[in-house]
């Protein structure tokens, strides 16, 4: 049975939705590989700000604990010394030491979103109003020593503040 | 833990699914938000959620992808919106032009642009039904499940949409 809209729907169906950009495919591939963990963004008001500090204190404690453990192990002392030599005297070749750069494999690199806070509108010379948003992350990097499978974890808290065009309806 | 071969097979499968559904999902996500970056975020999260669920339940239908997109977009709308600074460049399209929803055809380019403009002028609730029906290939029953409406409502919104689309094109408003 012929429908009055047959011609129109056929015409519409001939239109091909545009292909997503390659960047989106790469983001999905990254998420599926587990390289980047997707953490739902949760915004909160000032009444929850204490939670942020608890989390940051915990993250800082982990970093301090890591430093203490590494500091107690001679092998890591040599590694730390070796790396600091590289920083201060980049032109010098490494003299000796059982642990070198090539012995560490990057195992995992992830960003954990700890907190996201909407700080409201800000004034700026732009055509649209802007909103200030602050995100707190902990970047976690894990290395493995090929020789003895020792794991080295580095946690770095970081904060990112961005201005986002606000939607005004 | 999965072997490298299993992971490669998984990759091949999801890429195959992505090739088929990626453009349709993005078009549907664009009906949920005005912002291109947000539409991409929605598609990413929906696709990843669906794929992970499918690892546990291989029988899951791909049409569920559209439901995932709808749910994620509703979740996002409930939260305070989160978009990063890259959106400043993509706010409307990098050169200030709206993002084009359909690939440019070699023939009938002007007509297609007219149809796309007419489509954009429809109310969102009609537009999303039209997108799911025509480009998503869903039945009215599936559309009803995706949008949490009855199949009859989906069908009537579809008819309204086509009618309005025809009127807009005939009147030459766009």
Walk me through the structure:
The complex is a heterodimer of chains A (169) and B (174). In chain A, 35% of the residues lie in helices and 30% in strands. Chain A is built from 4 helices and 3 strands; from the N terminus they run ααααβββ. In chain A, strands 1-2-3 form a 3-stranded antiparallel β-sheet, covered by helices on one side. The longest helix of chain A is centred in the middle third of the chain and has 24 residues, at 49-72. Mean pLDDT of chain A is 70; it is low at 35-48 and 86-97. Chain B has 174 residues and is mostly helical. Chain B is built from 8 helices and no strands. The N and C termini of chain B lie far apart (55 Å). Residues 1-5 and 84-94 of chain B have low confidence and may be disordered. The chains are: A alpha+beta (169), B mainly alpha (174). Chain A binds chain B through residues 5, 8-9, 11-21, 24-25, 27-29, 31-32, 38, 40-43, 116, 118, 128, 133, 162-165, 167, and chain B through 10-11, 14-15, 18, 22-24, 26-27, 34-35, 40, 43-45, 47-48, 51, 75, 79-85, 87-88, 91, 100-103, 105, 111-112, 115-116, 119, 130, 134-135, 159, 162-163, 165-166.
